[in-house]
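Posting for a labmate who doesn't have an account.
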Amino acid sequence: MAAFKYHALTTQGKARSGVIEADSPRQARAFLRERGLLPTEVNVTGTEKQQQSRGWRLERSLSGRDVALITRQLATLLESGMPLEEALFAITRQTNSHRVKTTVLSVRARILEGQSLASALADYPRSFNDLYRAMVAAGEESGHLAEVLIRLADHGERLQRIHSKVQVALIYPVLLTLVAVGVIVLLMTYVVPKVVEQFEHAEQTLPLLTRQLIFVSDALQHYGLHALGVLAVLVVLARWWLRDPGRRKAWHRLQLRLPLVRTFVLGQQSLQFSRTLAILVGSGLDLLQSLRVSTGPMTNLHLRQAVVNATTLVREGCSLSRALEQSGPFPPLLIYMIANGERSGELEKMLDKAAESQEAEFETRVAWILGLFEPALILVMGAIVLCIVLAILLPILELNNLTSF
């Protein structure tokens, strides 16, 4: 049985589309006619891999929120004793999202063909990453799939909470920045030229600050759009330049040398690594496989390579704490907690504690950085506006002084 996308018409002539399960396109059309629909197009759903290999435009992958919700629902249904294929079908009945329904029905169709859940999910790598599939495979092998899915759901929901906190915290600074830039551009391109016109007939040398203001105002009026175009081109070139793995790795290494950026990047990447490794170790995967999979969510190539190097040292007999200490600039607290977990035989517990500590520290640092940015932006904007006001007032005061004599 496979999943088919369809477009059909009702008896009233209204268009309908969706996904239906059937053994063949002919059977799918028969099912649609039984529902009172006139099928106009019926196609088997393509996986992300098939679409990519055929050069088709990829549909959007499932969001992290959708994946976390699917995982939580599936874990709950499996824990209640429902068979996997029935649980997947029940999820499709609960959702109104076309993407979710299409993906879950396609996965269910492959399971009915005899594939495992992990291999069925492998057809959708953009929605279900290496970490997700490795944990599902471990859960299927150990017979504790529901428990593993609960861990995955907790992990996904925790990531969504962190992302939501960061996004909410960024709303005010971003809006403040846009308003500040808009006000300054409006002053320089509209207000300042109107005021400067009054000084054109004055037979005196304008103050230096006023001349500089006029120069900047003229530049914005005549070359502002050109500057935006150049900026856009530079952004595109930078993205193209960073597509090379070697250059991107060098850029990521540089990030770890910048004081403020290092704190943010290292905290976020270490948190991701420790949380992922704790989940993998707790799901029954061996340490070497857990280390290999844990590099997937890491976006900094320099730190990812450090974990790869540490994996090589562990394979050669080195302890994990010493391997990480020798391979990369990981936080000392993480190294200490791992070493303590290795000595006590509670590595998973210590990794969880390290992740919780780093998560609290990361949120505190984000709040501190954003709290520092807001008054700094207000001060900078105030200084710019003050310079504009002074540049306008200085020639006016000089004119008043001349007329008083």
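Reply:
Got it, the structure tokens are right above this. Residues 64-155 form a domain with the Receptor-associated Protein fold (CATH 1.20.81.30).
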